[in-house]
C-alpha cells in the first residue's frame, strides 16, 4: 500500500489513540504492527525535514536554528518559497508500506467512530 508522508502525519496521532482502545486481539495486533511500520517511515520523513530546516533556517552565532517565541523556525530572507516547495515535495512522497490487514467483522461490537474507521480504512480487508 502506498501512503504519502502527508497521510502518515495526519494519521499517526489518531492511530495511537485507536491503539489504546480495547480491541479484539487480531485488530489490535494489526494496528500495532502497522503503527510500527508507519513510525519507521515517519522517522525518515523527520530526518529529511530536519535537513531542510538546516538548509533554509537562520542560525545564530553557534550555528543553532533560530526560532520565534511560538516555536516557528525563522527562515533566511528569500528562502521561504524554496522551503515551501521542498516541504510540499517531501509531503507528497509516497511510501510503499506492507500493511497488515484485518476483516471489518472483527470490529463487531466495538465502539469506533466513523472518523476512526476512516483513519484505519486501508487496514481493513474488502
Q: What's the short version?
A:
This protein is mainly alpha-helical. It has four helices and four strands, in the order βαααββαβ. Helix 1 packs across helix 2 and helix 2 (25-56) packs antiparallel against helix 3 (80-92).
Please explain how this structure is put together.
The protein has a two-stranded antiparallel ribbon with strand order 1-2. The protein has a two-stranded parallel ribbon with strand order 3-4. The model has no long low-confidence stretch (mean pLDDT 95). It is mainly alpha-helical and 126 residues long. Strand 3, helix 4 (114-120) and strand 4 form a beta-alpha-beta unit. 53% of the residues lie in helices and 8% in strands. It contains 4 helices and 4 strands, in the order E-H-H-H-E-E-H-E. 11% of the residues are buried. It has one domain (2-125). Helix 1 (5-19) crosses helix 2 (25-56) and helix 2 runs antiparallel to helix 3 (80-92).
Amino acid at each position: 500500500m502506498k501512503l504519502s508522508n502527508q497521510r502518515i502525519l495526519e494519521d499517526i496521532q489518531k492511530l495511537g489513540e485507536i491503539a489504546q482502545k480495547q480491541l479484539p486481539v487480531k485488530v489490535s495486533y494489526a494496528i500495532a504492527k502497522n503503527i510500527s511500520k508507519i513510525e519507521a517511515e515517519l522517522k525518515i520523513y523527520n530526518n529529511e525535514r530536519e535537513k531542510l530546516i538546516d538548509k533554509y533556517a537562520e542560525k545564530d552565532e553557534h550555528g543553532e536554528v533560530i526560532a520565534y517565541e511560538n516555536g516557528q523556525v525563522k527562515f533566511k530572507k528569500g528562502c521561504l518559497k524554496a522551503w515551501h516547495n521542498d516541504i510540499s515535495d517531501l509531503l507528497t512522497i509516497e511510501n510503499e508500506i506492507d500493511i497488515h490487514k484485518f476483516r471489518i467483522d472483527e470490529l463487531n461490537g466495538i465502539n469506533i467512530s466513523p472518523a476512526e474507521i476512516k483513519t484505519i480504512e486501508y487496514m481493513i480487508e474488502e
